[in-house]
Amino acid sequence: MAKIAFILLCHKDPEAIIKQAERLTAVGDYMAIHFDARAKPAHYKMIRAALDDNPNVAFAKKRIKCGWGEWSLVEATLHAVEAAEQAFPRATHFYMLSGDCMAIKSAEYAHEFLDSNDVDYIESFDYFESDWIKTGMKEERLIYRHFFNERTQKRRFYTAFNLQRRFNLTREIPADIQVMIGSQWWCLRRRTIEWILDFTRTRKDVMKFFRTTWIPDETFFQTLVRHLVPEHEIKSRTLTFLMFSDYGMPVTFYNDHYDLLLSQDFLFARKISPEAHELKRRLGELYAARHAEFDISNEGAGLFKFLTGRGRIGRRFATRFWETEASLGRERELMIVACKKWHVAKRLLGRIKQTTNIPAIDYLFNEEDTPLPDLGGIQSTLGKRTRHRRALMRMLFDYYETNRLIICLDPSAIDLIQDFYADRSKTRLLEIDCNFTEDYLIGHAMRVGLAGERTPKETLDRLLPTIRYDVVFESDRIRDANLPNHTRIHERASPEQNTPALAEFLSVPAETAREIASTDYLFAD
């Protein structure tokens, strides 16, 4: 059975480190600790006093002053790895951790998981071909030498960088090395660790190269594993669940994230809030549990994006439109049906097309497969339709040889609605107000990827109020925009009550509007 040697890099919170070491080694696993040489000496003494008698804990023989983006982080990791490799000959796997990580599965589950696949788990993507680096330096991290820390010695860092660039003082990447990049949180087999340590002793040229690269903790182990291990024995993923905010900062987990964390397909999570005492207690008890069962739904990243992607009140992640195209035409009338239940809006449009001669198109900005005529390719993808929305609408008016056209939009597309209202053409809006049962909201969550068939009930119970509020919020935003020619029909209203709004929206006689409003099963789910 797998036995894990945890490689712990830490620099603060000695009480938490002690508890983490005791918890992880209590079930027979091991830990090698590197405590930053910059940290308080009293904290290191406290850790040593508490753990020196634990035979399953080892300490790096040399402590390094670590700095973000520096070689020192890799050097500290190597010292801890060497200590673990020597002290724990029975360790089968070496798992990189930080002091902010905690297990989100039981030890029993983790051991069985590692036993089931004889592979190394490490993100390892081609440095130049992948888009892992979103902004900032890329090639410059490697071809120039970096001697200073960009965060603490900014002037020296950029002076040295600019001088090298000015005088073209570049260097070659070692010829037999394909540089890879990925997360620093890995889990490697013992054989791989032994190969890496041997490599560091024999390939001084590669070691010299990485010592002066920038942010080598994202490239060193990732490159060496891919260089030394057959591709089919590498899973290019991390077993540590972590997410980043739009500012590039790690997302912090709190007490109410327990169910969410357990349902993710990972063994550990980073980072746990120091104040999340209840979460730490429950996760600590979980690691020692026997026969624990886990329902993996893996919706964490999508759920986080849903809950936070709207920002605060202004929902600053709403789509922004920067393209300005010619008007649809002052004489034209665009009629928008906004409804969260797409099947209801489609049913209404079908009836409108049967009783009037107004061309109507379903959710062309929401659904890729909406039937559209061939307009030269501008209609081929949602991205093209949205970027060239006014050109697309002009072409549709021309194609149908009409000055009146109906389209459906999801209520979340308030920016699209407002953009069309800003045109010189006349715009009308019909909002369909529907009832939303819990079953419908759960189905909606599954359709958009916020939940799965195996999502725990506790997670759904927490999710449903947020989804319901989200629907209400979208409707409120439309109303708060005070758009002219805005009418509404309601599921709770009778056909007679909905008739005036439909007649106004379509500019048709009341009899025609009543016929449309009386559509059988209009609001049925």
- Percent of residues in helices: 40-55%
Number of strands: 17
β-strand percent reads 5-15%
Termini separation comes to 51 Å
Strand order of the largest sheet: 3-2-1-4-9
* Total helical segments: 20
What is the averaged pLDDT score?
89
Task: Give a short overview.
The chain is an alpha/beta fold and 525 residues long. It has helices spanning 14-25, 41-51, 71-87, 107-116, 140-143, 154-166, 190-202, 204-211, 220-228, 258-262, 277-287, 300-308, 342-355, 382-387, 389-399, 414-421, 438-447, 457-480, 495-506, 510-517, and strands spanning 4-10, 30-35, 57-59, 93-98, 102-103, 120-121, 125-126, 180-181, 187-189, 234-235, 240-241, 268-269, 333-338, 360-361, 404-409, 426-433, 486-490.
Q: What's the SSE blueprint?
A:
Elements: E1 4-10, H1 14-25, E2 30-35, H2 41-51, E3 57-59, H3 71-87, E4 93-98, E5 102-103, H4 107-116, E6 120-121, E7 125-126, H5 140-143, H6 154-166, E8 180-181, E9 187-189, H7 190-202, H8 204-211, H9 220-228, E10 234-235, E11 240-241, H10 258-262, E12 268-269, H11 277-287, H12 300-308, E13 333-338, H13 342-355, E14 360-361, H14 382-387, H15 389-399, E15 404-409, H16 414-421, E16 426-433, H17 438-447, H18 457-480, E17 486-490, H19 495-506, H20 510-517
Parallel strand pairs: 1-2, 1-4, 2-3, 6-10, 11-12, 13-15, 13-16, 14-15, 16-17
Antiparallel strand pairs: 4-9, 5-12, 7-8
Helix pairs in contact: 1-2, 3-7, 7-9, 13-20, 17-18, 19-20
